[in-house]
Design goal:
By secondary structure, the protein is α+β, with helices and mostly antiparallel strands. The protein contains two helices and four strands. A hairpin with a 5-residue loop joins strand 1 and strand 2. The longest helix is centred in the middle third of the chain and has 14 residues.
Amino acid sequence: MKLYVYAARDKKTGKLVSNITNPSRKFWQRRGDCIHAISNYNYRHSRCKTYDLEPVTFELVEVKDDENENN
């Protein structure tokens, strides 16, 4: 089963943006929530738009950390 998380990325810098809804929120579990947050940000900050945002999808992959388990 594939798991995904969604984030807002600034198109100009390529960096993830975390302060469009809550300073501690950088990822969403649902794509629709991420797109909604971006839309709300764009609507509220249309005059002083500091970011050009796009949604980005990350696939979660579990990695077993054998190195730490042996210590």
